[in-house]
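User: Before I run my own analysis I want an independent prediction to cross-check against. Here's the chain; please return only the structure tokens and, at the end, one sentence I can use as a sanity check.
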Amino acid sequence: MANSSRLGLLRNRDFGRLFAATGLGQLGDRIIFLALPLVAIVALHADEFQAGLLTAMTSAGSLLIGLPAGAWVDRMRKRSVMICTDLARALFLLTVPVAWWAGLLTIWWLYAVALVHGVLTVFFDVAYVSYLPHLVGRGNLVEGNSKLSGIRSVTSISGPTVAGPLVGLVGAPAALLVSSAGMAMSGLLAMTIRKREEKPEPSERPGLADEIKEGLKFVVKYRTLRAIMLGDAVFNLFLVMYQTMLLVFLEREIGLQPFGVGLIFSGMGCGALLGALLATRVSERVGQGPVIWLVSLVTCPLTALMPLARAGWSVYVAAIGLAALSLGGVVRVVAQ
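Assistant: Structure tokens:
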């Protein structure tokens, strides 16, 4: 009985399949995070500007369709959106190793794949968050989110740890085959979830533009939401800049092999997992409001250790700062 109690929602067949699909999809996504930039840096000898532009293409989806995505997904069956975006991402990622083996791969090809993958990921994330309450009910939402956050944190550790040796063994383009397979399996698992949603009636909803305006008014109306939105925007802007140059720094300045790069990023995953375990306790002790800004002030300055590092053991000591950044980020998001 105690073991069944610990399993909780995992005893639910549909939730168990969503849990497994999440693990596979996240594992594929973590490999992409490392392998796609390494394709540009190592295989195509991209410079710093090209590496930065590749990251910008990955993030551009949120800017291009972030506002209408939620309104569009509200008009669709969330499960269907998740399946279609998973399978489409798998297909587009598959074009990278195929183009590489055919001698056709260029930096522009990577830009296109990164942009399409980013747009599809926005739709997947919106559908994923919206689908969980329908699948498990409002009463089980906290437990469902907790278990899914746990598997996401585990894949944050295992993904880079797998990706580093994999890239070193077969090369970055071929490593994307594993990412493509993970995305495809995630989509196929989601197909087996039996619980269906009713398709929203278009006549019951306001126009798309009106719905976007309504959402923006809701966010702007409340001071707390405004602060969270602006704080996240600033944080994510500089985080993307930092992570983009981090790969270039580790590979060219420090001279780390893919396995070493994977270890550094798996350390970030360890910090995220620890943050998930501590988030509730820290928020209760410090307070949900204060912890949002206080945890960032404590953990973010430690990332300055990395640019001070040199080849050798010091780079792994500096990685403690990255782990602290991930820990603080998870605590902040949970509190928000």
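Sanity check: The chain has a mean pLDDT of 80.
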